[in-house]
């Protein structure tokens, strides 16, 4: 028998792990990139209607995160629960966990949709009194809320596939859904499809909402049929979807609760940030909007790797393989760092070019250059936080996310911004520096909890 050294064994394990992580993450990256593209195109079509339509959709999307927090809570819980059950080899528990995620999340979505629909009109009036903007927001918002259970369930489909080690199927589903949305948008929105003489349905902003929900229904239908037909590793039982298992449902509601609070804290901080940015004028607000769009694109590899590595970590912990869980996290962090260093260099060297993609307004460009350099380069710290965060999502120990958010945003970022804007009255460049400091603080907190090791013994399955 040939002698195999310990280093050679380690190299084989590292190669296998890299293959597994990339196999889980690359399809997710491609799917999310396409999602980002069609979100941009969706807004581009709405913008061609009129400014009121664009404002209405923007305002509704801003408050839509209120119900999105519920998806964040249950979705985060389901990742650790499904992945750990699957990693332990218990197929029955895995099936039940998937079924309960479908059922419980859909039920929560029904309740949340009814409540949000009841308060939507007065909530929108808090932001605007323009009747045309309100009409657009309501036309777009009501149909999105009506199909909220389907939207939540489509997220469950993607989560379940990834937790079973299959990232290609949700990518293919997202590709199909994106194409459906891209095709339907101009057909449903306009009286005549732009660039052609082909008549459309002329539904306006309602057509944009309708295109979105149709693509969501298609995505859910494909994935749900695959699970029902047994064409994947787990075949769900339709009649069991009408049962509630309180032990599992309680876990779905509580494991991800810190993530829900973190999302709430994050959004409230964003609202305060926007209010402070308005003190620098319209150009600063416009610049922030552009930089936020660039940040969303830059975050795609981080989010995708986090989803892939969290699923693998959950499977490893389900099989009580802590060393492989640690190796997965370290590899994800290294890949994150490499990607964000490249993106940061581009942002530092070519900020004016990036701004000109979106606008030719000199004041907006001038305000955006320091914002791009500081905010996007701070993603180097976010890369480490995201990589280390894989162990928390995978284990179900999500408290560090909440603590890191509270400390970085409410003890560091917001006070720093108040000091810059109200007390010292410094330029907006210093305002962007507060984001940089906050992301660095978040990284330190996440590293502390990673090294503390509580996650190593955490199990939820």
UniProtKB/TrEMBL annotation:
Note whether Ribosomal protein occurs among the keywords.
no
Q: Which UniProt keywords apply?
A: Antiport, Cell membrane, Ion transport, Membrane, Transmembrane, Transmembrane helix, Transport
Membrane topology (UniProt): Multi-pass membrane protein
Which residues span the membrane? 21-41, 53-74, 102-120, 140-161, 173-193, 205-228, 335-358, 364-389, 401-424, 430-450
**Subcellular location field:** Cell membrane
Example of a GO biological process term: monoatomic ion transport
Just give the chief location class: membrane
Task: List the molecular function annotations (GO) for this entry.
Answer: antiporter activity; xenobiotic transmembrane transporter activity
Q: CDD domains attached here?
A: MATE_NorM_like (cd13137)
GO terms under cellular component: plasma membrane
Please tell me whether the keyword Glycosyltransferase is annotated for this protein: no
Role, per record: Multidrug efflux pump.
Under the heading PANTHER family, the entry gives: FMN_FAD EXPORTER YEEO-RELATED, MULTIDRUG RESISTANCE PROTEIN NORM-RELATED
Q: State the similarity comment.
A: Belongs to the multi antimicrobial extrusion (MATE) (TC 2.A.66.1) family.
Q: What is this protein called?
A: Probable multidrug resistance protein NorM
Phylogenetic placement of the source organism: Bacteria, Bacillati, Bacillota, Clostridia, Eubacteriales
């Amino acid at each position: 028998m040939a002698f195999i050294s310990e280093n050679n064994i380690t190299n084989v394990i590292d190669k296998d792990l890299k293959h597994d992580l990339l196999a889980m993450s690359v399809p997710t990256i491609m799917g999310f990139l396409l999602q980002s593209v069609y979100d941009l195109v969706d807004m581009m079509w709405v913008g061609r209607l009129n400014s009121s339509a664009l404002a209405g959709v923007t305002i509704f999307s801003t408050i839509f995160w209120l119900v999105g927090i519920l998806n964040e809570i249950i979705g985060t819980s389901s990742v650790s629960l499904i992945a750990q059950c699957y990693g332990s080899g218990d197929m029955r528990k895995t099936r039940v966990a998937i079924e309960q995620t479908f059922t419980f999340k859909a039920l929560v979505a029904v309740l949340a949709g009814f409540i949000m629909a009841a308060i939507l009109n007065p909530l929108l009036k808090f932001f605007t009194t323009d009747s045309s903007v309100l009409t657009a927001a309501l036309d777009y918002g009501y149909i999105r809320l009506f199909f909220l259970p389907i939207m939540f369930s489509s997220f469950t489909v993607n989560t379940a596939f990834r937790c079973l080690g299959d990232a290609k199927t949700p990518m293919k589903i997202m590709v199909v859904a994106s194409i459906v949305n891209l095709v339907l948008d101009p057909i449903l929105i306009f009286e005549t499809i732009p660039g052609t003489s082909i008549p459309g349905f002329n539904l306006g902003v309602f057509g944009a909402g309708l295109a979105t929900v149709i693509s969501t229904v298609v995505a859910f239908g494909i994935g749900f049929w695959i699970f029902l037909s047994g064409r994947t590793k787990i075949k769900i039982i339709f009649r069991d979807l009408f049962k509630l298992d309180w032990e599992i449902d309680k876990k779905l509601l509580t494991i991800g609760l810190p993530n829900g609070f973190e999302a709430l804290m994050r959004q409230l901080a964003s609202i305060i940030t926007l209010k402070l940015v308005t003190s620098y004028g319209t150009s600063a607000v416009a610049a922030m909007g552009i930089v936020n769009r660039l940040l969303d694109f830059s975050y795609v590899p981080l989010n995708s790797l986090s989803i892939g590595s969290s699923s693998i970590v959950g499977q490893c912990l389900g099989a009580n393989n802590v060393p492989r869980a640690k190796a997965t996290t370290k590899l994800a962090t290294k890949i994150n760092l490499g990607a964000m260093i490249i993106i940061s260099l581009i942002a530092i060297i070519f900020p004016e070019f990036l701004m000109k993609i979106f606008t030719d307004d000199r004041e907006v460009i001038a305000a955006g250059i320091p914002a791009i350099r500081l905010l996007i380069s701070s993603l180097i710290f976010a890369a480490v936080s995201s990589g280390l965060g894989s162990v928390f999502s995978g284990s179900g120990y999500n408290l560090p996310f909440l603590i890191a958010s509270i400390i970085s945003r409410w003890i560091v970022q917001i006070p720093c911004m108040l000091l810059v804007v109200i007390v010292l009255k410094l330029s907006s460049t210093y305002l962007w520096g507060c984001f940089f400091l906050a992301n660095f603080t978040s990284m330190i907190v996440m590293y502390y909890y990673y090294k503390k090791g509580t996650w190593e013994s955490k199990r939820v399955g």
